[in-house]
Amino acid sequence: MADTILVTGGAGYIGSHIVVELAGAGYIPMIVDNFATSSPSVLPRLRRITDQPIPCTAGDVRDRAVMKRLFAEHAISAVIHCAGLKAVGVGEAQPVAYYDNNVGGAITLVEAMTGAGVKTLVFSSSAAVYGQPEKNPVPENALLRPASVYGRTKRMVEQMLEDVASLDAQWSIGLLRYFNPAGAHSSAQIGEAPSATPNNLVPVLAQVADSDAPEIAVYGNDWNTPDGTGVRDYVHVMDLAAGHVAAMAYLKRAGGVTTLNLGTGSGHSVIEVVAAFERACGRPIARRIAPRRPGDVAICYADPSRAQQLLGWRATRDLDAICADAWRWQVNRHR
Ligand code: WQD
């Protein structure tokens, strides 16, 4: 019998792509989502892509009764925990909401898993736990100096899970630190659908390119980088999803806590990403130099060698593929 995997936040951007990859790998994915930053409209699209029903419970991971019932009614083998808030700027303005959702949600989830004897968990962490890395590429044992509320909530959950695993050897936990997820499924059926104005570069570019007067605000061109603009590690969301499936297989064999960077290992500047998006959309995008954004760092890209060694995983899609898929999603998403 195929393993049932609960994906919390599975209706969201990262979660929905993970659901597709899980189904493709022969797992039975099921979703719990409160639709705070996602929409039920993704569910029929997931069914079309995977050609199978994807059970979804509308609920909040912080709701003890919902979570207890989920584990009582379904033979869940493992959990991939994506549910949480991820807008760095919003986190600075609403710290309590971020700790409640991101840390409180993880606490309730682990309590429900423990009560049901389910002790295999993949946690959606973030490169934000590094803050401004001392050096790039960033290895997993780099100094952890999260510079945002969001980053601190992710590190706090990592620490809680490390403590849980040190107490009970039955736990097998993957802490996957995402760098900059971007792009969309090639079908253009699912993708990044920010409920509010997007903050991240690629979805901003998709919206800007789709406007009458495309112009992007570049947050600073005086960084200590080759062209003065911020450098990041953009990893295709489908590569990221494949990393979760590989991690799930690994955790069935390994115990304890496995911490892995999920990135491409190469960095691209804002100007390079704008140029790639111009190639994808076939139109020029004007750029306006704006002040630096609070909390930004100059350069951050992954050393993904440990994920390659342990999981046999590496990103296979490049920046042009990311922009092409993101643009196709932008053009088709409202159809
Ligand atoms: C990328 C670069 C900006 C928008 C954050 C979180 C991280 C993860 C991804 C959740 C930077 C520049 C951006 C714009 C710009 N989130 N930029 N104009 O800040 O690296 O990472 O999102 O997992 O945890 O920290 O991503 O896409 O916002 O910015 O110049 O309109 O693009 O300054 O250099 P970031 P981003």
Describe this structure in words.
It is a single chain. This protein has a domain at 4-183 and 233-264 and 303-315: Rossmann fold, CATH 3.40.50.720. The strands form 4 sheets. It has a 7-stranded parallel sheet with strand order 3-2-1-4-5-6-11, sandwiched between helices. The chain is 41% helix and 19% strand. It is built from 11 helices and 14 strands. The longest helix is centred in the N-terminal third of the chain and has 22 residues, at 95-116. Bound molecules: UDP-4-deoxy-4-formamido-beta-L-arabinopyranose (WQD). The site of UDP-4-deoxy-4-formamido-beta-L-arabinopyranose has 20 residues, from helix 7 and strand 8.
What attributes characterize this protein structure?
3-stranded mixed sheet; 7-stranded parallel sheet; binds UDP-4-deoxy-4-formamido-beta-L-arabinopyranose; 41% helix; 11 helices
Blueprint (SSEs and pairs):
Elements (H helix, E strand, L loop, with lengths): L3 E5 L4 H12 L3 E6 L8 H9 L5 E3 L5 H10 L2 E6 L6 H6 L1 H22 L3 E7 L22 H19 L4 E7 L1 E3 L18 H9 L5 E5 L11 E2 L1 E3 H17 L2 E7 L5 E2 H12 L4 E5 L8 E2 L4 H7 L7 H14 L3
Parallel strand pairs: 1-2, 1-4, 2-3, 4-5, 5-6, 6-11, 7-10, 8-13, 9-14
Antiparallel strand pairs: 9-12
Bound molecules: UDP-4-deoxy-4-formamido-beta-L-arabinopyranose.
Outline of the structure:
The chain has 335 residues and is of the alpha/beta class. It has helices spanning 13-24, 42-50, 64-73, 88-93, 95-116, 149-167, 201-209, 237-253, 270-281, 305-311, 319-332; strands spanning 4-8, 28-33, 56-58, 76-81, 120-126, 172-178, 180-182, 215-219, 231-232, 234-236, 256-262, 268-269, 286-290, 299-300.
